[in-house]
Write a structure and sequence with these properties.
45% of the residues lie in helices and 20% in strands. It contains 24 helices and 24 strands. The chain has an eight-stranded mixed sheet, sandwiched between helices. The protein has an eight-stranded antiparallel sheet with strand order 11-10-9-18-17-16-15-14, sandwiched between helices. Helix 7 packs antiparallel against helix 8. The longest helix is centred in the last third of the chain and has 41 residues, at 630-670. Bound molecules: adenosine-5'-diphosphate and magnesium ion. Adenosine-5'-diphosphate (ADP) is lined by residues 307-309, 379, 381-382, 411, 413, 416-418, 429-431, 458-460, 518-521.
C-alpha cells in the first residue's frame, strides 16, 4: 500500500512575488503558453482531400477514360472528385476548428503564492519567480525548481516516456507537462512558455492531428472494404459485359459507372462533421468531449456510476453541527462569511473551539475577503473548517503567525485523513471510520456519527495528540496511528444541486442504470442518493470492503439500478467499471482524484470534473464536465444518442442508395444489353453528388429531440 508520506519541512514559506512584480514580468516575458503548433494550412487540407484513397481511385478512372477516348467522362469524374473533395474539405475544416475551440474551453489553473497569499490563477499568467504550490493530481505548467517537498512523486512520462514515478529532491527541477502523482511541494518558476523543456520537445514532434479513435478506424475499414467490392464488382461486370458481346469501350464505361456508384466518397467526412457538431453542441451544454469518438460511445451508455460530492451535490460546504464529548453545538451562517450564530452549552462551545483550531490547522483551505465578499481559496470542505473557526472566534492565522505549521501530511484517499504538526501537537482530521478507531474510546461517538450521517451530513472526525520532543524533531505520518485524543465530529452540509432529480428521472426513462460510487460514509451517501431520487428502495447499499474479488460475482451484485457504493477506494472503481463492462454495459464512470486515472481509462466513458478534480483525472477522461454537474452527463448522453441515430441513418442511406444507383447497370448487364441502360454513367456521377452529399449532410445534422431519451436504446 501507500508509503507513509514524509512531511514538508520548510518552516517559513516564501511570500512569493507581489502582484505588481508579477504584472511587470508578465508584460516583459509574455504569457506562459507553449508556442502553437502550426495548424495544417487549408490548402494542404484541400489537396489532402484530392489525393486520398478514393480520390486516387477516381483519378485512375479519369486517366483510363481519357486514354479510352472518352473526354466527357474524364471531365465528369474529375468534377466529381473536386466537388466531393470540396465538400469534404469544408466539413473537415469545420470539424478541426471546432476541436480547437473545444480545447480552449478548458483553461489550466495553478495555485501560487503572491503577496503571502494562496491564489489560484490561470496557467497563462504564471511568471518567472512565482512560488507554485503543487499537490497530487496537478499538471506542472512551467519549468520549476523545487523548494520543498513532502512525499513528492512525479510522473514524467510525457517527457521521458518512462512510466515509473520519480521522487525528485528539493533543489531539482520539475518540468512543464509532467504530473504530481503523490505528495506536496513548493517550487519556484524558472522558465515559462517557449523557454520550457516541453516547448523544445513539442517543436520537434509537432502533431496537430489526434490519432484516429476506434470509430474512425472501423469506418476506414468499412469504407475500404466497400471500395474493394466496388472495384471488384466493376471488373466483374466489365468481364461479363464484354463476354456478352458488348464493345470493350462500352464495357469500360459500364465498369466505371458501377465503381463510382458504389464508392461511398462522402461518408468519412460526414461522420467526422456530425461528431464534431455534436461535440460542439455538448460543449454548449458544459460537456467537453476530449475525443470525437466519445460522442458515439456516450450515446450507447447504459450505466452511469457517479460520485457524490460536487456532482450530485453543490460542493458548497458549511459546518452546521459539531459533536464533542461535552455536547453538541449548532452553527449557522451565510456562505463563507466569518459571521455566524453558534448555539450550544458553554462547555460544549469551549470544546468546539478547541476542535475548530485543530481542524483549521490541519486544513489547507482559507476563506479570504476579496471585492467586498468572502471567497473560498482551496477545497470547499477545507475552507468550511476555516470558516467554522472564524465563526467561533478562533484566530487561526494569528496562531500560525506565532507558531507556524512545521509539517503536513496531505490527504490520501486510502488513509482517508490528513494531519499537520503545529505547536508541538499533531492535528488530525479525516473520515470518522479512519480516525475514531485510532483514538481512546469516547462514549457516544458512534451514535453521533450514525445520527449525523443519516441526515446526509458529510462527516469529519477531528483528533490531536501531544508530540514528544523526539517526535517533533522528525515527524512522520505514522504518528497519526496511535494515542490520538478525539476532539469531536464535524457535520458538514452540502446540499444537492438543482436539476439532479430531473436528470435522474430522465435516465430512468431512458433505461440507463445509475449508481453512486463515493469514498464517503454509507449513511451520508444513501441519504443524499435518496434525496435526489437516485437510490431505488431495496437496491443494496454496499461498502468498498464488501465487494467480492471475483469479477463475475461483482458484476452480478452491482448490475441493478440505484445501487449505493460507499467507502470505495479508487482502485475498486477500476474493478467496478470492469465488472459492469463484462456484463455488457457501456459504463460511464466519474472520478476526480489522482488515483482515479486508471478507472477513468477503463470505463467506456471516463468523466472528469472541470471545476473540482485534478488535472490527472481530466487528462485520463473522455468527457469533462465544465460545471461538474450530474445533469451535464445526462445532457451529453442525450446528444450522443441523437448523433448515434444520425450516423446510423445516413450510413444506411449512403450504402443503400448506392445499391439503387447500381441496379440499372446490373439489369442492363444481366439482360445482355437488351434491356436499355436506364441511366448513363454521367447521370450516375451527377446523382452521386446530388443524392450522396446533401441528404447525408442533412441527416447528419438532425438535432436531439424529446424522444431521444424516451426509452432504452434500440
Ligand atoms: P467523495 O466521494 O464524496 O468525494 P472522498 O473520497 O473525497 O469522498 O472522501 C471520503 C471521506 O474522506 C469524507 O467523507 C471525509 O470524511 C474524508 N475526507 C475527504 N477529504 C478530506 C480532507 N481533505 N481531509 C480530511 N478528510 C477528508
Ligand atoms: Mg472527494
Amino acid at each position: 500500500m501507500a508509503r507513509p508520506p514524509t512531511p514538508i519541512t520548510s518552516a517559513r514559506p516564501a511570500a512569493g512575488l507581489t502582484a505588481a512584480e508579477a504584472r511587470e514580468r508578465l508584460q516583459r516575458d509574455g504569457p506562459n503558453v507553449l508556442p502553437h503548433a502550426k495548424p495544417v494550412s487549408p490548402l494542404a487540407l484541400f489537396l489532402g482531400q484530392l489525393t486520398h484513397f478514393f480520390a486516387v481511385l477516381l483519378w485512375g478512372a479519369t486517366v483510363l477514360a481519357l486514354l479510352g477516348g472518352m473526354p466527357e467522362l474524364a471531365i465528369a469524374i474529375a468534377v466529381v472528385v473536386v466537388v466531393n473533395g470540396g465538400f469534404a474539405f469544408v466539413q473537415e475544416y469545420r470539424a478541426d476548428r471546432a476541436a480547437q475551440r473545444l480545447q480552449a474551453l478548458l483553461p489550466m489553473r495553478v495555485t501560487v503564492r503572491r503577496d503571502g497569499h494562496r491564489l489560484v490563477i490561470s496557467a497563462e499568467d504564471l511568471v518567472v519567480g512565482d512560488v507554485v504550490l503543487l499537490e497530487a493530481g496537478d499538471r506542472v505548467s512551467a519549468d520549476l525548481r523545487l523548494a520543498s517537498t513532502a512525499g513528492l512523486e512525479m510522473d514524467e512520462s510525457t517527457l521521458t516516456g518512462e512510466s515509473a514515478a520519480v521522487r525528485p529532491d528539493p533543489g531539482s527541477l520539475v518540468f512543464a507537462g509532467t504530473y504530481v502523482v503523490e505528495g506536496l511541494a513548493e517550487a519556484v518558476v524558472e522558465s515559462t512558455g517557449a523557454n520550457t523543456r516541453l516547448a523544445g520537445i513539442a517543436a520537434l514532434t509537432e502533431t496537430t492531428r489526434p490519432p484516429l479513435g476506434p470509430l474512425a478506424v472501423q469506418l476506414h475499414l468499412v469504407v475500404r472494404a466497400v471500395a474493394a467490392i466496388a472495384v471488384s464488382v466493376g471488373l466483374l461486370f466489365f468481364g461479363l459485359s464484354v463476354s456478352l458481346g458488348t464493345p470493350p469501350h462500352e464495357g469500360f464505361l459500364f465498369a466505371v459507372g458501377v465503381t463510382v456508384a458504389l464508392v461511398p466518397e462522402g461518408l468519412l467526412p460526414t461522420v467526422t462533421l456530425s461528431l464534431a457538431r455534436a461535440a460542439q453542441r455538448m460543449a454548449g451544454e458544459h460537456a467537453l468531449v476530449r475525443r470525437l469518438d466519445a460522442v458515439e460511445t456516450l450515446g450507447l451508455t447504459t450505466f452511469i456510476c457517479s460520485d457524490k460530492t460536487g456532482t450530485l451535490t453543490r460542493n458548497e460546504m458549511t459546518v452546521v453541527e459539531v459533536w464533542t464529548p461535552d455536547g453538541t453545538v449548532q452553527v449557522r451562517g451565510e456562505g463563507y462569511r466569518p459571521e455566524g450564530v453558534v448555539e450550544g452549552a458553554p462547555a460544549a462551545q469551549e470544546s468546539v473551539r478547541r476542535l475548530a483550531l485543530s481542524a483549521a490547522l490541519a486544513s489547507t483551505g482559507r476563506s479570504r475577503q476579496a471585492d467586498g465578499d468572502w471567497k473560498p481559496v482551496g477545497d470547499p470542505m477545507e475552507v468550511a473548517l476555516h470558516v467554522l473557526a472564524m465563526r467561533l472566534g478562533v484566530d487561526v492565522n494569528g496562531t500560525q503567525a506565532v507558531d507556524p505549521t512545521t509539517a503536513r501530511f496531505p490527504f490520501d484517499p486510502r488513509r482517508r485523513r490528513m494531519s499537520a504538526v503545529s505547536g508541538g501537537l499533531l492535528h488530525v482530521k479525516g473520515s470518522p471510520d479512519s480516525v475514531i478507531g485510532l483514538c481512546a474510546a469516547v462514549p457516544g461517538s458512534e451514535e453521533a456519527v450514525h445520527a449525523m450521517s443519516t441526515r446526509g451530513l458529510r462527516l469529519l472526525a477531528v483528533a490531536r495528540r501531544e508530540l514528544t520532543p523526539a517526535e517533533r524533531a522528525s515527524p512522520t505520518a505514522a504518528l497519526e496511528e496511535q494515542g490520538l485524543v478525539l476532539l469531536g465530529v464535524v457535520g458538514i452540509e452540502d446540499p444537492p444541486r438543482d436539476g439532479v432529480r430531473e436528470a435522474v428521472a430522465r435516465c430512468r426513462r431512458a433505461g440507463i442504470h445509475l449508481a453512486v460510487v463515493t469514498g464517503d460514509h454509507p449513511g451520508t451517501a444513501a441519504a443524499i442518493a435518496t434525496e435526489v431520487g437516485l437510490r431505488v428502495p431495496g437496491a443494496p447499499v454496499l461498502e468498498g470492503r464488501d465487494l467480492p474479488e471475483d469479477l463475475d460475482e461483482l458484476g452480478e451484485l452491482l448490475d441493478h439500478d440505484g445501487v449505493v457504493l460507499a467507502r470505495v477506494e479508487p482502485e475498486q472503481k477500476l474493478r467496478i467499471a470492469r465488472a459492469l463492462h463484462r456484463r455488457g454495459h457501456v459504463v460511464a464512470m466519474t472520478g476526480d482524484g489522482v488515483n482515479d486515472g486508471p478507472a477513468l481509462r477503463e470505463a467506456d466513458i471516463g468523466v472528469a470534473m472541470g471545476l473540482g478534480g485534478t488535472d490527472v483525472a481530466r487528462e485520463a477522461a473522455d468527457l469533462v464536465l465544465l460545471d461538474d454537474h450530474f445533469a451535464t452527463i445526462v445532457a451529453a448522453v442525450n446528444q450522443g444518442r441523437a448523433t448515434f441515430a444520425n450516423i446510423r441513418r445516413f450510413l444506411t442511406y449512403h450504402l443503400t442508395d448506392n445499391v439503387a444507383e447500381l441496379t440499372p447497370f446490373v439489369v442492363w448487364a444481366l439482360t445482355g444489353g437488351s434491356f436499355p441502360l436506364a441511366i448513363g454513367v454521367l447521370q450516375v456521377l451527377a446523382l452521386d453528388i446530388g443524392t450522396d452529399l446533401l441528404p447525408a449532410l442533412a441527416l447528419g445534422a438532425e438535432p436531439a429531440n424529446p424522444r431521444t431519451l424516451a426509452g432504452p436504446i434500440r
